Amino acid sequence: MTGSVLLEAKAIVKELGQGAGKVRALKGVDLGLRGGELTLLMGPSGSGKTTLLSILGCILSPTEGEVVICGQSTKGLKPEGLAKLRRLNVGFIFQDYNLFPTLTAAENIKLALDVRGMAKAEQRPAAEAALVAVGLADKINSYPSQMSGGQQQRVAIARALAGNPAVILADEPTAALDSENGQAIMALLSKIAQDPARAVLAVTHDPRTLSYADRIVHIEDGLIVSEERPKGAARDSEEPEEPGASSSEAEDEPPGPKTESATEEVAAETTEPADAIRHNGATGPDADAREPDTTDEAARPQPHPQPVSASLTQKKPNNRRRRSPRFARGEHLP
Ligand code: ADP
Ligand code: MG
Q1: What is the Å distance from ligand 2's center to 205 Cα?
Q2: Three-class SS of residue 48?
């Protein structure tokens, strides 16, 4: 079932580099992402995919244009404001997983939840629930080196989902995986995207991923040139939409963005995925839009608390670990 527009990019222009090396990486991109859909972003190398993903995920601010996430515009936001919006509403998944090798699967997620400010007592159960939800109940105490690439990517997905963000952005999530693991990851992302409260966008070069897409958007030389819906019309009774289609209709009003108190900011500012993007060898965010650099190892994973939707569970999570309704409503968040 298709949900409301959770993320909108409007007339996005992005210039990267300086002086003679300045590149207009995005030249006016409009893109809207609805809940309940898995969108694939495809295009040649250098066409602006990673730059667009970074802007949609509030890692970079656009040179021109505006991104609206769950109804909140990024316009005029300083890097800290962008970071907050990202932390609360966006989950990232990277090609090379970005797990800490010295931490177990559960600890990798727990760390992200800790930095996010989740109560200590909640962290372990929430991390375990997230791993169960991605089919890794038997790997909770395993280190990344004891897992296959596909399993490591599942941990990274669990970490991204553990914050219950409205938008999941993945940059070539299957590129480092063999066929079987790549298919399993796409099946998982597709399943996640069945939640009308969740929009998933994955950058891909990988033709094996196409069958999972609800929508494929093609980008060339900084512009969206076409899109298609391989499964036919939108999942629900929605009218077909243009790239970047926005809606002012009441029923399309997205839920408001999550907000957080200033008290969390200091911890949270040390946990942004900008470092992960750089480690990933992807587009280097320009200096003005980057988060403050940090050498702290804890800076890389993303802080996302909250359990993964029970609908994702491949094995039923232990009932004793079920969140309270108050938790499910996010009331434990500031
Ligand atoms: P894709 O992910 O589609 O391969 P990118 O978004 O990484 O493309 O890059 C888009 C364009 O911007 C390319 O021409 C790339 O060379 C350029 N670019 C990326 N990062 C920078 C940067 N930090 N400075 C200057 N140009 C950049
Ligand atoms: Mg790229």
Answers
A1: 10
A2: coil
